[in-house]
Amino acid sequence: LNVLKLLEVKQKHNLSDRAFNEILSIFTNNEISLYAVKKKLLKLVNIMPIFIDICINSCMAFTGQYANESSCHYCEESRFIDGNLQKRKSCKVLSYFSLIDRFKIQYNDPGRSKLLKYRYEYINNENYDNSNIGDIFDGNLYKELVNEGFFANERDIALIGSTDGYQIFKQK
Fold it and tell me: What's the pLDDT tens digit per position in 61-72?
């Protein structure tokens, strides 16, 4: 279990594989490797990425109706390196992880499942006005959605997207 905690530190601080293996060798006397840790983690958390080819400029994803396209519809860049359709090596690939699979894992853990009820159990603070919001659930848009019948069930999930990487609320 401590090895999985070390893997979390590796991810959190962006340690190289080489640095991580050196740390492992110090604490485990070379009894375990990064490969073995990842294999153990895969048994605990069975989330596999889905790899999707995307435009080199991130204009579009080559999926769905565009799965067989060889160039971007927007910037006309080739999907494949050197434009070679025979080798079919994509210029850029996106790793996609299913939200449904991630939620299943979280809801299977009783402690985490209780934490996920935060939205449902959140008490709106009447002292907040539009210029001082304590949480996304104090916002007018969320309140409008609730009035329209959304988020009635305690298991309903509200997601927030941040495209610039800036986290505006304490909840992750």
Answer: 999 999 999 999
